[in-house]
Amino acid sequence: MAEPDRPVPHRPGAVSLFFVAKAGVFALGFWIWLLVLAVRGDPAEGVHLIAATGAVCTTLVGVVLGARVALQRNAAARHAELKRLLVDISWNAFAAVGNSDQQAKVVPFPTVPPDGDRATNRGPGERVSALDRGDRNRGERRR
User: Fold this and answer.
1) Residue 72: CA atoms inside 13 Å, Cβ hemisphere, count?
2) What percent of the chain shows pLDDT beyond 70?
3) Nearest CA to 81 among 131, 26, 6?
4) Measuring CA to CA, how many Å separate 116 from each of 112, 121, 133?
5) What is the pTM of this model?
């Protein structure tokens, strides 16, 4: 059976991708400026320091923002796959119960037993809940 066409999962990071591209453009500009200053052969001055600092900083910003965008996209893909898997599991469980030839064995959701069904014989290490102790109005006594 062919897998049905599913919509593409939400891919966050369009704004972040803009800033990655912007940092890349600025880094390229600073690196070109630094290259031009180095080719001219002038002695190192404050302009060289500004160009080098700008090139390094904008390159690092671009790398950090690029890594963040990649992590966001990866997390979005994993989240979409997890949601798809949960829907498939629930749909398959629903379809299996409807298509079965036998009576389905459904595990009931745990509920609090009536007052008469409570077990009072517990060992020394067993925990006792507030409902089992009979402290139903405990919250009202605190007020």
Assistant:
1) 14
2) 56
3) 6
4) 11, 13, 13
5) 0.53
